[in-house]
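Quiz preparation item.
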């Protein structure tokens, strides 16, 4: 008999959370994410940690990120939840990455890793792409039919346009590979911060400095309000200043060139410095042009028949 998916698995009101298949912090499947007993019941901020066991063991960046997440989970255990999205090479590494940690995790057996005797199936992204392509083809067919038979298809076309496309109650869940594709993950560890009330991604690559103990309270307050953290906001401003600093000489020359052009336009050729620049950078060509101009002037003042 075909397996029926329990409606409670996709009953969460958030469009992203409803498409996840999760294990709790004890490694047991979460069968009803929207239940009053679920670990997600009070969550307003979810951080997706794309990582592997090697990140925590061998990289200072990874160690700082993991430590900050553990501190944040302990400080705000209900409104903030971390979901571990494994990029581990095998299930043993995945289990070690989750054991004793305060975060939830995406289930391992979702087709992301090739398994022996497994059947290749479509991913959620492939399925959505096929549905979108079919919708486009059907719309093109309807338009062509209406063009070729306008009288017969007038009523049908107007009815089809008036109908609103109904979204199915069940959507195929995201695999770990599907989530990595959705958020454009290029390296690990990467922390993606998601705000549930507004269904908004606040950060696609959170900085470990946002999770330092001296920034933690401000960070979680900003995230819960649906805003980037103060550290991220300052970082964006620093980025703009750094770009301007690196381009300072280019910008200065551009300002000078603009000033001379404006002076030439409004003040006349007396402000034209192109001959001076030509004499500096191409002295030979400048002499030739000056000699040609002298001969031309001499010919112009020379009397006829001389």
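Solution:
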């Amino acid at each position: 008999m075909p397996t029926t998916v329990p409606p409670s698995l996709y009953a969460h009101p958030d469009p992203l959370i409803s498409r996840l298949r999760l294990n709790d912090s004890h490694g047991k499947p979460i069968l009803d994410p929207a239940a009053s007993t679920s670990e997600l019941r009070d969550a307003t901020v979810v951080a997706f940690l794309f990582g592997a066991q090697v990140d925590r063991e061998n990289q200072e960046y990874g160690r700082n990120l993991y430590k900050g997440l553990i501190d944040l989970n302990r400080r705000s255990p209900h409104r903030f939840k971390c979901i571990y999205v494994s990029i581990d090479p095998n299930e043993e590494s995945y289990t070690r990455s989750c054991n004793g940690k305060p975060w939830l995790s995406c289930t391992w057996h979702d087709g992301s890793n090739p398994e022996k005797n497994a059947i290749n199936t479509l991913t959620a992204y492939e399925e959505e792409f096929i549905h979108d392509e079919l919708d486009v083809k059907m719309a093109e067919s309807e338009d062509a039919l209406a063009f070729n038979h306008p009288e017969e298809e007038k009523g049908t076309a107007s009815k089809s346009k008036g109908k609103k496309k109904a979204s199915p109650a069940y959507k195929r869940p995201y695999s770990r590979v599907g989530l990595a594709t959705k958020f454009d993950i290029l390296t690990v560890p990467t922390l993606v911060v998601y705000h549930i009330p507004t269904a908004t991604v606040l950060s696609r690559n959170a900085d470990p400095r946002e999770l330092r103990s001296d920034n933690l309270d401000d960070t979680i307050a900003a995230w819960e309000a649906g805003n980037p953290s103060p550290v991220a906001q300052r970082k964006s401003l620093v980025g703009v200043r750094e770009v301007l600093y690196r381009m300072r000489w280019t910008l200065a020359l551009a300002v000078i060139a603009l000033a001379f052009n404006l002076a030439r336009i409004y003040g006349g050729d007396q402000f034209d410095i192109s001959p001076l620049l030509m004499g500096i950078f191409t002295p030979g060509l400048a002499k030739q042009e000056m000699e040609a101009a002298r001969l031309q002037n001499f010919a112009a003042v020379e009397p006829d028949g001389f």
